[in-house]
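Section 5.1 Outputs to date
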Amino acid sequence: MDIPLKTRFAPSPTGLMHFGNLRTALFNYLYAHHQGGALLLRIEDTDTGRSETHFRDAILRDLQWLGLEWQEGPFYQSERQAIYNDYYERLQQAGRVYPCFCTDEQLAITRKVQLASHQPPRYPGTCRRLTAEQIEAKSIANIPFTLRFEVANQQVVEFQDLIKGNQRFETDHIGDFIIRRGDGSASFMFCNAIDDALMGISHALRGDDHLTNTPRQILILQALNLPIPQYGHFPTILGPDGQRLSKRNGSRSIQELRQEGFLAFGILNYLARLGHHDADNTLLDLNGLSAHFELKNISLSPAHYDPIQLNFWQKEAMHHSSWQDCWQDIRTYVETYVPESSAEAFVEMVKPNLVMPGDAIPWAKAIFADIDYEDKPEVMKVIRDAGVDFYQTASTILGESLLDYPKLVSGLQQKTGLKGKALFFPLRAALTAELHGPELAKILKLLGVEKAQARLAKAVKYASHL
């Protein structure tokens, strides 16, 4: 019988969600939806010393803002300790685990010696050799201990990675590993594997920083006769400097990006192509991104964060949004200038010139507030070069043609003999105090005849006296 396809996103609430976390969530979401499966959300919060409620809430808020809906969960590992205890007991009865009384200091010294000897750092099995009497004596003395999984020697763990292909690990290079912390809580290695099995996860897709965890988790599941998911590990994300992406080389949290004005669809379209090839380079919704997602298209090389590409997709998302959505994005930036009655016209004017919502601010001021040319030498030069006659003629034609922009342009061409930049630059300079920007026809419509003529009159003054 076929197992229903189910992926999962299992973040630890020890910090805000960033690009690495989000790409893992997105790839799992896209794969599940492409295959007609389900996405499960699990919060891995057994590390009580580092897990915080506000980080958990931030993760849920980010996922909801991005539209990454899960079909099962959220489940919280902090509420599942009794389940983990049951499986610890099963392993103890099977003789597959043992208490480890080694201190952090002892383990650190061992690792240092191994590295100095050019050996891979792994637990040497010190406490595996303790007798029952020695264990009892240490327990009576209340010496803290962890629980280690005993890894058999001279064996091989082999699995077919969905992205990287065949993977082979020798158990002699793994060593016995901790599955229960000294405080009794479950380690990531253990509860992550147990929950994948019990929650019916068929495909565990994650970053390749977890690749060496996989043989350990397979050993746990084999020892407990629990189902083993198919694993897939995609390469990590590097910063522009070639180092692992972090705050130091440009990474920001999703919360920070949202506060800066980045749009959800722009972020999703960028990340869906970060380390994943998609021949369609158009802005897609989640259904479109899911339809194009294939594990075979994930690169085997590390992905490189590119802020230019992020801004490209931000711009695409901004330009393809409806005027209502765009207004909601820019409203807080411009509502002190733009009347509600002019919102639609303003958005239609400014949207092609936006990358970030804050980019609308200077245009809100240019249309609805007073403008000044004096602090803009380039604008002043254009106005002076155009001269008084140009602006007086423009004002006369504007009064006759009202807001008919084609008539204004054709009239100016006939009267002045100017065309192209020689005509449009002086006109734009007078109306907006800028030399580039939105379409003049839309600007004129928003300004209205009275305000436009007032600005042309102002240009006449500057052209004649300055």
